[in-house]
């Protein structure tokens, strides 16, 4: 939806329009009634003028501004507004003269006359005040609404991408793990119980914990550790891994499933035939920043894919979460693929 469409859309509930005009009428009635010490005159004149205020305000908000200002036709907007104010002056003065009083400018000082330049200027400035304040209110409300809509869209995109990431927990990972578990149970291996516990923790995390916006970093690390240990079972003796922690990470909250895609990439591109996958993962707190690092050997034939769509999707999610307050770098150092992510601690 464009700014023009948002502005034209009636984003303010009818009751607030009624509140505004009711309060504005009351203030004007009290103001001019006390000024002239004549509340009946103040009520009658305001009763004549207020319908004109309302017509001009809504013509300005819903017709002139969208038609000219948003299309950058400022000259035409000024001309149209001048014509509108001129018509307003004639109708207002005529109605007041016929229905309320022959003295159209009782507040004037000296020999000022109605229908003269000064009277026209005073009425026009007064009307511009009403037009200006109502336009400012409308712009402010629409700005807040657009901001809220953008936040809702970001929330929706965040939830959508989170569901996508959960779906990316490739089914074959679970099937392979279950197959390996079945094989272990046939052998009556003592490893079977450990596999069941780790797989149970992962499924609990995916089903329950990952739906939360943020989790403790310790939970995320525990989940990654379970994931790596189960992948070790899948690849048997072909994995050397280490997860290290530096600094006090207690109390740090992070978005759920933020680091898993990097770990998945290591397994996806790191195993080369019968060679071992060497994986090093570290978490370090430096001042008010969390530094995540993943290092693994990789398949040179899949070099481009290692930093392809997956990393682009991760970068997009980081932009949604942190805007420009993160740093994600990838590099190849001594035949090792290195990912370094720095995010602010929240």
From TrEMBL:
Pfam family, one: His_kinase
Superkingdom to which the source organism belongs: Bacteria
Assigned keywords, A-Z: Kinase, Membrane, Transferase, Transmembrane, Transmembrane helix
The Signal transduction histidine kinase internal region domain, residue ranges: 160-238
Membrane-traversing stretches: 12-30, 50-69, 74-95, 115-137
Molecular function GO terms recorded: kinase activity
Protein name from the UniProt record: Histidine kinase
Species this chain originates from: Joostella atrarenae
Organism phylogeny: Bacteria, Pseudomonadati, Bacteroidota, Flavobacteriia, Flavobacteriales
